[in-house]
Amino acid sequence: MIQLHNVSLAYQNDMAALNNVSLKVPKGDFIFLTGQSGAGKSTLLKLLYGALDPTQGQVVIDGQNISRLSRSQIPHLRRKIGVVFQDFKLLPQRTVLENVAVTLEVLGWGKKDIGKKVYHILKQMGLEHKINSNPLRLSGGEQQRVALARALVNDPKILLADEPTGNLDEENKEQILSIFKEANIRGTTVVVATHDRRAIENSHRRLVVLEKGRIVEDSNVIAE
Ligand SMILES: Nc1ncnc2c1ncn2[C@@H]1O[C@H](COP(=O)(O)OP(=O)(O)OP(=O)(O)O)[C@@H](O)[C@H]1O
């Protein structure tokens, strides 16, 4: 379960990027977070994986107030959370295999198990033939799927994705969205930030709309 209690965040002395936001995302839910550019979507995701601390309020993941975690506890939190960034953040000097393997290496998996698991997820993504490629030689859609493979290879409890279908064509968007849905069916809680209204409208998922740092619409408000 993800919970935000009256969360505000101001960058330096600026206006609040998030203003008194409260939100509950039950385990196994799938939500789209939407709103115009600058509405606060990326900021909210960053709070959820401990990259930012709220100026006010609390962010609670699985019953744990994450602003109370020490620096050394943050990596432990992140093991539960797969993140797909807006710009993929793939390592350019490493192969596709090595990029995805990173997630399991930090968890201390053995080399043989890593090889098997990475091959399996890349096959699911239709990328097994690119396993030894340099990510920079892949198309945008393929790079996005490598980023997703890296985020999902350890079956995280939570998947956070920031504008994952941004520059993709319709076919690639469909493919990415169906990967999210499959992960969700396997039990991962999914939070996707996007301003791609078309992707959202056809998906019949919970929709949370941010405007100037406030939640102005929630298609599935959960009673207190
Ligand atoms: N590092 C930063 N320093 C100062 N202000 C920031 C920083 N990052 C974001 N902001 C400001 O916070 C507000 C919310 O930004 P955020 O990136 O969360 O919006 P967003 O909804 O994700 O936008 P986009 O769809 O363009 O990615 C904006 O006004 C933005 O200018």
What is the chain-wise order of helices and strands? EEEHEEHEHHHEHEHEE
Which class of secondary structure composition applies to the elements? alpha/beta
Secondary structure: number of strands: 10
| Average pLDDT for all residues | 90
Uncertain segments of ≥5 residues (pLDDT<50)?
none
Ligands bound to this protein structure: adenosine-5'-triphosphate
Largest sheet, in brief, is: 6 strands, mixed
Rg over C-alpha atoms, rounded to the nearest angstrom: 17 Å
The helical percent reads: 25-40%
Overall, the morphology is: globular
Distance between the termini: 14 Å
Number of helices: 7
Strand order of the main beta sheet, please? 6-7-8-3-9-10
Strand content: 25-35%
Short description:
This protein has 224 residues and is α/β, with parallel strands linked by helices.
Describe the structure.
This protein is of the alpha/beta class. It has a domain at 87-151. It contains 7 helices and 10 strands. It has helices spanning 41-48, 74-79, 96-105, 111-124, 140-152, 170-185, 197-201, and strands spanning 2-10, 16-25, 30-34, 56-61, 64-65, 81-84, 158-162, 189-193, 206-211, 214-218. A 6-stranded mixed beta sheet has the order 6-7-8-3-9-10, with helices on both faces. α3 (96-105) runs parallel beside α5. It is globular, with a radius of gyration of 17 Å. The relative contact order is 0.20. The protein binds adenosine-5'-triphosphate (ATP). Adenosine-5'-triphosphate is lined by residues 11, 14, 17, 35, 37-43, 195. It is found in: Cell membrane.
